[in-house]
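[09:14] KT: can someone run the structure on this one? pasting the chain below
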Amino acid sequence: MKIDLINATEEELWKYVGAHLAKNNFDAVLVGGAVVSIYSEGAYESGDLDFIIQNLSKEKLPLVMSEIGFFKDGKNYKHPDCKHLFVEFPQGPLVIGEDNNIKPKSEKFDGVELKILTPTDSIKDRLATYIYFGTRDGMDQAVLIAKAQPFNKSAVKRWCEGEGRSEVFLEFLKSL
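[09:31] RB: done, structure tokens below
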């Protein structure tokens, strides 16, 4: 697959890196702000892509990422042609708050399965940043997704209640 790394969007970079990881047997799920960018169709720009690796040790990542031109710089992977985006591999497992029963959405691309949080789980993920880190950005990002994508409102409500934060769901609804 060819990609214009100088001008790549989060979605294009997700597909490029995600396909390479999948072809190297990494079960990687895209999470975080890049998902917001994809689901909001660019209304939000994250600046990085966060992949949770679910099946393999991350010790082979430097070699695998170097095959597509990314080098490790601290906790990030950077590409000399892609100065506006970088890639991170936060520690798993795949959880959102107290919920560890996350079922990512799969999408076929370049002959492999790519995985990304569903819009509903991405909303919960962004609300988790609002709840646990107190950042208004988390609420704003959840609202961007909700305005752009169909989602399961009752699942978001149950999740907020499970986190002991029913008032966050009410605030989220008011923000829509």
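[09:33] KT: thanks! The longest strand covers residues 82-88.
[09:34] RB: yep, looked fine to me
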